[in-house]
Amino acid sequence: MEQLKKYFYVSVANDDMHAELHCTDQYSDKLESDVNSIKMFLEEFNVKTGIKEEIIQLLLNNNFTKDDFPVMIAKGNYPEQGQDGYVEYNLNLETQVAHKENIDFREVMRIPSVTKGEKLATIIHPTEGIDGQDVRGRTVRARPGKTAPEKAGKNVVYKESNSSFYAASDGQINVTKHRINIHSVFEVKEALSMKTGNLDFIGSVIIHGDIPSGFTVKAEGDIKVFGIVEAATVIAGGSVYISEGIAGLLKGSITASENIHVGYINQGIVYAGENLYVENSIIHSECTAKKNVLCKQGNIIGGSTSAGVSIAAKDIGNRLSTKTEISFGYDKSTFEQEQQLIAKKKELEQTLNKLKILGEKLNQNTQLKENPKHRITLLRQKNSYQKTEESLLQVKEDLFMINAFLGSEEEAKLKVNNKIYPNTFVTFGKYKQEIKEIRKNIELTFDKNEVIIKNT
Question: Whole-prediction pTM value?
């Protein structure tokens, strides 16, 4: 043992998952020891498990020189983390049909539909995982998988017996914010006019014509327009499909919690909770998508376009050097919404704390417990506490949803399939890159606080 102490010492990693054997200046390859002695020596450094028997044999055979050290003498077993639960859909949720050459984009849109009693999806439950063990012999607990957050929404039932969702009525299926919904459809056979007025519908809306300036269309499901949307207001809890385009005069707006599919955008204000697909061009508009903006066959000229993940276009800017802004990360409306929620959360937490203190004081006053006024006050306190707690939970869920869909500048990408012109500004968070000359077929990314431009 003394020879081992003279020749070696042991270091253990910060996470206790491996240990290394180091040699001292007095080390000699004439080691005289045995397996048990070496294990006892290691135990003095609290290294008990995961010991590499093959390394011990090499040491006993004097196969190491000083230059071979340090060597890993023990290695723990990392835990096998549990797999997250997920939802396995039993139907086609795809809303896009693959484009073929010379096929009109407006005629290949698809809205998924189901019939009453149809099986929609099955929840696959998470696994627990397998515990590991560090070199000190302690158990390293595995993280269990997270439960799939999907819930039954409108016109959908969930059966515990087989962990599956079923349609409770005919209609259009819509999956949004971790809920499966089935919406009925309201259909307008012509352009919106004074005869129909504004629309506010719980399901999905189909309009076989234009939406003129000044009108408002709201739907909890999808909105599909076979025409032009002028300076109108369109708000969808699902996706928006516009077969022709948007001529907004920077007055109306298009807002969708999911995707927006449109032929072109001219002076439009557009917000997509997921992706924005534009068949042709975006001109002098304000467009925001939390995920991707895809304008592969058209141009982005003027205005501002922002996305959380990627933006792709044929050309960006024009020969007249029209100022064009491209940005990734927070958009103004999301930032303002997040700040309001943070302030509301703080206010509710303070109210909850005050109600808790009040409840404790009321419960401690045993002499007044039989007093009817005291009992009424206590009931009011409990009711207020419960309502405040519910409000706080909702605010926390809203904050979670905002952060869940925010992209990272490190993952963001701008793809230019043809030309990008001067006076175009590309912003990744707080870092801005001005394009001062015509560049062709390039890709812009962000890495280590630097905007990277490369040819494609």
Answer: 0.54
Q: What is the 3-state secondary structure (H, E, C) of 90-153?
A: CCCCCCECCCCCCCCHHHCECCCEECCCCEEEEEECCCCCECEECCCCCEECCCCCCCCCCEEC
- 309-347: per-residue pLDDT in tens? 999 999 999 999 999 999 887 655 666 677 888 889 899
pLDDT, tens digit, 9 for 90 and up, residues 209-248: 999 999 999 998 899 999 999 999 999 999 999 999 999 9
Cα separation, 441 vs 443, whole angstroms: 7
Query: Is residue 81 over pLDDT 50?
Result: yes
DSSP 36-65: HHHHHHHHTTT--SSB-HHHHHHHHTT---
CB 170 within 8 A of CB 130: no
Question: Which residues on adjacent β-strands are paired with residue 295?
Answer: 313
pLDDT band at 104 (very low <50, low <70, confident <90, very high): very low
**CB–CB of 180/151 below 8 Å?**
yes
As a whole number of Å, the end-to-end CA separation of the chain is 64
CA–CA dist 256, 289 (Å, integer) = 10
Report the alpha-carbon distance of residue 25 to residue 41 in Å, rounded: 18
Q: Could you give the C-alpha distances from 36 to 8, 42, 53, in angstroms and in order?
A: 16, 10, 11
**By 3-state DSSP, what share of the chain in percent is helix, strand and coil, each rounded to 5?**
20, 40, 40
